[in-house]
């Protein structure tokens, strides 16, 4: 049984990772493994580069309002 | 629908009573200082009732969201931009995307009319207009694979209305960037502390970018923590710099700051995203959520008293120094973000719909996040209303009106009925380690004084100067991120438009096109910034109304698209849900643009202002507040540009609304002619709760299916 404090800490950690999109790579790997089992999975470095390149190509993604 | 039980009835009656008590005290108390607690009670009580009843009614009776229908995130899941996201995470994402400097600035300026008009508009506006707009746009975009507002306007209204909407969006973006940059310039001018700490955010962001790109890709949380720590260090170091021999290097005149800012905007927008934009964005998200949470706690713990009158004389006579014009329509355009903000429709269509798990969650994400932004606006209004009204007016009136010495300012402000001594004005500046607080227009410095007042109540008076510069840094950080991101979006739109004329522009990575379009966008907003800084009549005074008008006109476009879609999708009897806010918003904004262009009061109407100053030039006279013939010519040029701009924006929006109306009438007469581009129904396999806290039924459903449960539960 985990204590309430441990649960709270892991909850906060989960939330921050999700909110800042730090979990994007893990999510993408899971997605590729599940839906395209034969496809190659990029390493983290290449994946993060691809993500910023996509933002470069269409800056409306991740636009911030006033 | 279950029948209400006794507990529910009791709880909601209590909530209603709390809200009603808040409103009664705010509206009826006279002659004594009211506690900010009442404002908080009025706002929160009203939000809770609106969320529980009105938003629920719209979601289930009008939009008829379908929990069994798969969202774009589920159908098109690609693990990158389309992916079903936990509702609590998406709420944070969406909130961080919509809330920025806007809800912090507008309410501060509107406080010149007293706290009551602003509070009423923020709360009523968000409930019936702003949050409804965000949610309905989110709904329709979700039903269309996350299409943008512009695409929806083109497909559902027509190419003509669509083009007008696109052009209006571009113009609005430019004005927005110019005015936001002006807020930063006014906050940093002659402030070595502020300038140093904001300047340091650039190397900090570069370092973070390098770390994420080369050292440890994707470790966003750790790099953000390092960034925040360095940021706080830069803030503390700012004081040392301000007290050292380097102070002169960082004491910059407004016109120097303009050049730096435009140069920065250009370079930042052509650099790769990973160098500056992405790390800065992480930093500002962290700071945004952290500071807003701190501010909410501070307001609730300190519960300061409101010193501003409920309604000032400026509201009755329309002759306020912060911005000219009467309560109607100008309070309703000065406070845009927080009550109704057209810009949100660009977030609600586009990014968020690609991530939402269930249609049933649009109430929590669309309506809920906007209520949160509205509460930020209420906090900003609290911060502006707790400082001494004399200080408020001395900080927000242009120097043309109050002069440049504390004696002069004290005299003028006292003649308006708000007594403050020269010594108090000097002391207020000294408290926050600034040379002067006179005419620090733009809202950011006033908010920072209010915030430092609240925070130093909690942490002890000695940290006042630190909190002031903390608040300045926090706002400037958002705005610089918005400048970078906004320049890129503006450039993207321009590349798209120019691509129709000269093909290579369509290729967004074609370097010459990239540099040229970035330069055009920066030059355009830089022009407004330059004008704002050199405006003898006060840049914020002249430009902020145009900013408000343009934001509200974009809201009119969004509401027109929503209303058309409600009519075309067979919801004619509910079209008033967005139709009434549209009618109100159109009335307010068109009246405001009409008055800004054609009013016979030279303080309000740009063309009248132009002719008054032109006549004086012809007669060889210099009219105050202009000091020279050059100033006179500046006023004439600026008022011409501003007047023409107000008129053009209004015409564009009238075109969109008229075109939307045409489509609605055609649909009612001959429904067979209409096409509706909604994506066909696909059944959803995801099980997820609709609201923040799962109901008992939702929990049972989740354990039965045991799929799609997020981690951490």
Automatic annotation (TrEMBL), chain A:
Superkingdom, taxonomy of origin: Bacteria
Disordered: annotated span: 47-66
UniProt cross-references to InterPro entries, sorted A to Z: Sel_put (IPR007423)
Pfam families, per the entry: Sel_put (PF04328)
Protein name in UniProt: YbdD/YjiX family protein
Organism listed in the record: Streptomyces prunicolor
């Amino acid at each position: 049984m985990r204590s309430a404090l441990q649960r709270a800490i892991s909850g906060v950690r989960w939330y921050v990772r999700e909110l800042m999109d730090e979990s994007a790579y893990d999510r993408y790997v899971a997605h590729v493994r599940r839906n395209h089992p034969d496809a190659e999975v990029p390493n983290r470095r290449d994946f993060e580069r691809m993500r910023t390149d996509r933002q470069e190509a269409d800056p409306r993604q991740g636009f911030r309002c006033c | 629908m279950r029948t209400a039980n006794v507990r529910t009835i009791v709880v909601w009656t209590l909530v209603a009573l709390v809200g009603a008590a808040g409103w009664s005290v705010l509206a009826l108390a006279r002659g004594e200082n009211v506690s900010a607690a009442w404002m908080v009670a009025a706002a929160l009580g009203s939000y809770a009732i609106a969320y529980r009843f009105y938003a629920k009614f719209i979601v289930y009776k009008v939009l008829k969201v379908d929990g069994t229908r798969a969202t774009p995130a589920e159908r098109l899941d690609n693990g990158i931009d389309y992916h079903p996201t936990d509702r609590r995470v998406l709420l944070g994402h969406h909130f961080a995307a919509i809330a920025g400097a806007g809800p912090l600035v507008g309410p501060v300026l509107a406080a010149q009319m007293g706290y009551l008009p602003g509070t009423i508009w923020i709360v009523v506006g968000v409930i019936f207009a702003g949050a409804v707009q965000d949610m309905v746009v989110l709904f329709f975009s979700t039903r269309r694979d996350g299409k943008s507002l512009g695409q929806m306007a083109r497909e559902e209204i027509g190419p003509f209305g669509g083009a007008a909407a696109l052009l209006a969006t571009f113009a609005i973006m430019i004005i927005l960037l110019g005015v936001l940059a002006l807020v930063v310039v006014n906050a940093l001018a002659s402030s070595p502390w502020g300038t140093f700490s904001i300047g340091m955010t650039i190397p900090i962001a570069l370092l973070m970018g390098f770390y994420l790109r080369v050292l440890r890709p994707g470790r966003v949380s750790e790099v953000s923590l390092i960034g925040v720590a360095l940021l706080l260090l830069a803030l503390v170091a700012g004081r040392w710099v301000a007290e050292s021999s380097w102070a002169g290097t960082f004491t910059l005149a407004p016109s120097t700051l303009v050049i730096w800012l435009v140069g920065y905007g250009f370079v930042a927008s052509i650099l790769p995203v990973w160098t500056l934009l992405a790390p800065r964005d992480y930093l500002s998200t962290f700071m945004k959520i952290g500071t807003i949470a701190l501010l909410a706690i501070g307001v609730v713990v300190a519960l300061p008293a409101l010193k501003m009158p409920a309604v000032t004389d400026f509201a009755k006579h329309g002759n306020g120094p912060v911005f000219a014009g009467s309560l109607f329509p100008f309070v309703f355009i000065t406070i845009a973000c927080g009550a109704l903000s057209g810009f949100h429709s660009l977030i609600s269509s586009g990014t968020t719909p690609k991530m939402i798990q269930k249609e049933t969650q649009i109430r929590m994400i669309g309506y809920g996040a906007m209520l949160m932004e509205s509460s930020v606006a209420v906090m900003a209004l609290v911060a502006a209303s707790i400082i001494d009204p004399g200080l408020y007016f001395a900080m927000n009136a242009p120097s043309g009106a109050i002069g440049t010495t504390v004696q002069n300012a004290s005299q003028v402000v006292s003649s308006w009925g708000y007594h403050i001594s020269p010594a108090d004005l000097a002391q207020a500046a000294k408290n926050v380690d600034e040379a002067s607080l006179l005419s620090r227009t733009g809202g950011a410095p006033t908010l920072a004084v209010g915030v430092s007042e609240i925070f130093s109540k909690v942490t002890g008076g000695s940290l006042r100067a630190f909190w002031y510069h903390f608040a300045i840094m926090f706002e400037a950080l958002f705005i610089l991120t918005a400048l970078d991101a906004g320049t890129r979006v503006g450039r993207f739109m321009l590349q798209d438009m120019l691509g129709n004329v000269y093909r290579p522009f369509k290729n967004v990575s074609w370097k010459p096109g990239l540099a040229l379009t970035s330069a055009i966008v920066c030059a355009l907003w830089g022009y407004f910034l330059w004008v704002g800084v050199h405006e003898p009549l006060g840049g914020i005074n002249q430009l902020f109304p145009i900013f408000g008008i343009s934001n509200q006109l974009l809201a009119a476009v969004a509401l027109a698209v929503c209303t058309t879609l409600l009519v075309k999708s067979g919801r004619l009897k509910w079209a008033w849900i967005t139709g009434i806010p549209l009618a109100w918003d159109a009335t307010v904004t068109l009246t405001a643009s009409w008055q800004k262009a054609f009013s016979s009061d030279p303080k309000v109407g740009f063309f009248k202002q132009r002719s008054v100053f032109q006549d004086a030039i012809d007669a060889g006279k210099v009219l105050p507040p202009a000091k020279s013939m050059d100033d006179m010519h500046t006023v004439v040029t600026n008022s011409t540009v501003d007047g023409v701009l107000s008129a053009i924006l209004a015409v564009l929006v009238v075109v969109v609304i008229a075109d939307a109306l045409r489509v609605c009438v055609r649909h009612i007469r001959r429904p067979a002619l209409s096409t509706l581009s909604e994506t066909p129904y696909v059944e959803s396999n995801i099980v997820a709760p609709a609201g923040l806290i799962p109901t008992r039924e939702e929990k049972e459903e989740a354990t039965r299916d045991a799929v799609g449960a997020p981690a951490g539960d």
